[in-house]
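Researcher: Quick test of sequence recovery. Tokens follow.
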């Protein structure tokens, strides 16, 4: 039967004549070439027969030997324990198994072949996982959703941090915990794999790479080259260094803004400020912003740090005066 790993065969000689032997075979596919496995192991088992089976040889134990016994009536109720001779083969791998029983009398022989019995391998695995995990309060649970089309399969999971195996991580989920001091710079890829196993065989593993970052991007530093510039020949180049080396950053965008003050020049709510030129986007971790202006006034840089789908971080430089 499917999934059975130990096969037992019993053949009956017509007329109780001849020598009975067994040969076991395996095929890797249903129509593949047979591989000879051997003769199996003989085993004497106490009979449960309530009546003599025609052609079957029964045995009794004399000393340390099993010898044929003459049986009448109910074999299971005999004065001495009666045994049947069976042949057993322990299979350990997936395949298609059968046995041949051969009776030899003199130079002649007769062979009977059993039905074929299958030890099945695992079925087909479907699996999926998100490619991004966002830390919320320093935590995120990574999940692989997997299933086999055969309920008898066992799903085996492994997790890695980078290329290093995580000991004990053997389920469909893995919890990532990062303390507050390390979240700004935390950018780690975790690798998950899942495969199905059954009867010593396994499917090819399905693998996933999951990037983990904080759910909120963190601010880079923005340092203006100078706090004041003078228009020369009607123009000035305002510069600032944007440094995102201490935080995770996929993309830096900067925009020079001219501040528009109301009646109280000490207060600027940015509502009426005017962008100067187009925003500039860079994937570098260190960016030197450089924007030309032709008017005097107060300026500042608006810098946006973006990381995957995390909430962007926006930071404003100190004001720069142009006269």
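Model:
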């Amino acid at each position: 039967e499917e999934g059975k790993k130990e096969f037992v065969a019993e053949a009956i000689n017509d007329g109780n004549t001849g020598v009975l032997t067994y040969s076991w075979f395996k095929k890797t596919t249903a129509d593949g070439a047979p591989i000879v496995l051997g003769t199996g192991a003989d085993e004497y088992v106490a009979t449960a027969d309530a009546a003599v089976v025609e052609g079957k040889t029964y045995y009794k134990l004399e000393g340390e030997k099993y010898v044929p016994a003459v049986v009448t009536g109910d074999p299971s109720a005999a004065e001495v324990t009666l045994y049947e001779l069976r042949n057993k083969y322990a299979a350990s791998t997936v395949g298609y198994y059968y046995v041949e029983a051969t009776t030899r009398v003199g130079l002649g022989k007769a062979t009977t072949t059993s039905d074929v019995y299958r030890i099945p391998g695992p079925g087909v695995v479907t699996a999926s996982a998100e490619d991004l995990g966002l830390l919320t309060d320093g935590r995120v649970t990574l999940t692989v959703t997997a299933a086999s089309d055969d309920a008898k399969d066992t799903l085996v999971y492994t997790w890695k941090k980078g290329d290093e195996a995580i000991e004990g991580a053997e389920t469909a989920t893995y919890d990532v915990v990062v303390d507050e001091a390390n979240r700004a710079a935390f950018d780690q890829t975790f690798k998950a794999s899942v495969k199905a196993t059954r009867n010593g065989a396994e499917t090819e593993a399905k693998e996933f790479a999951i990037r983990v970052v904080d759910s909120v991007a963190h601010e880079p530093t923005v340092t203006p080259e100078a706090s004041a510039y003078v228009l020369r020949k009607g123009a000035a180049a305002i510069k600032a260094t944007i440094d995102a080396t201490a935080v995770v950053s996929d993309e830096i965008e900067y925009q020079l803004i001219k501040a528009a003050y109301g009646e109280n020049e000490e207060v600027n709510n940015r509502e009426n400020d005017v962008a100067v030129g187009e925003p500039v986007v860079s994937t570098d971790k260190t960016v030197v912003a450089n924007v030309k202006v032709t008017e005097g006034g107060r300026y500042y840089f608006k810098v946006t740090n973006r990381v995957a789908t995390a909430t962007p971080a926006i930071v404003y430089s100190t004001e720069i005066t142009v006269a």
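The chain is about 0% helix and 55% strand.
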